[in-house]
Structure formats: C-alpha cells, structure tokens
Amino acid sequence: MDEMRAEDVTIEPMTLDDLDEVLSIETVSYPTPWSRRAFESELTGNAYARYFVARKGRSIVGYIGMWVILEEAHITNVAVHPDHRRQGIGEKLMTYCFDEARKMGATRMTLEVRVSNIAAQNLYRKLGFEAKGMRKGYYSDTNEDAIIMWKYNLGPEPPMQDRLRWMI
Fold this sequence. Notes:
Blueprint: E1 10-13, H1 19-29, H2 36-45, E2 49-56, E3 59-69, E4 72-80, H3 89-103, E5 108-114, H4 118-126, E6 130-139, E7 144-151, H5 160-164
Parallel strand pairs: 4-5
Antiparallel strand pairs: 1-2, 2-3, 3-4, 5-7, 6-7
C-alpha cells in the first residue's frame, strides 16, 4: 500500500452508495461488525445521525458516525482500514466531527471504547477526551467493558466580538 498522509484525504457525507466499502472496513475492524441494514437505517431513518467517509481518491479508507441531540454529540462508530492506520486519518475524522457537531449546536461529545483498544484510547485522550465511567459487559460479543469518555469543549472559544455582543 502507498503511504498516505491525512492531508491527502477528503471527508464527505456518507451515502448509501458508499456502504460496500464501509462494510468492508467495518468487517476487518470489529469482531461483531454492524450490518448493512444498521448503516442504512442510520443514513435514511435517523434524523440525529451524521455519517462521513474519509476518501483517498475514489477509495474510502475510513468512516465515522455520530448522533447530535441538542448540545450533546455521541460518536457511534469510527474505523480506518488497517492498511491506513497511524497516518492521522482517525484524528482527521474526529476533528471533522467536532466541527460538524459544533455547527449543530453541540458543546460536548461522548463515546464508548473497548478497554482493550489502547490505540483508540490514546487518540481520544490526545483529542481532549477524558475517561468518566465504565459500562460493564457493554460489548455483547466478548462481554468486554467499555470506557465512557467525554470531551466537554468541542473547540475554540467563539471570537471575542461574539462573546461581547451583548455589551453593545
């Protein structure tokens, strides 16, 4: 595989036409992958859901999904193809979701991560997430616990003129 950089990757909304490639990544990334029907339901029937793909040229190399409900965003699923990991793509997908969630009014974000997924935990901590709880036996395939992580500030403070507008 050619080495790629995150800046070579574009992020765009996931469509139903993307599902074959998304499911291919899902299958090699998770012991119990989501079904096509689950992704279809998220894309067509969930008003809170936003899903995005990371594309290198015409190929999808990763994806992410989240729900945004009022001021909270919840990462539902994120994966990068194993051939393209550790190249900044996961971080780019996450920061893209920070921006999108903020545009929709979210001020904080949460996710669950397997206790054994140290690489993902390290990325999430780097991005400002903190472990705040545990869900015992959350992953039904292995009965593994999930760490609940939160990021309470989705980005930079609003520009000073926005914060001072009430004074005018």
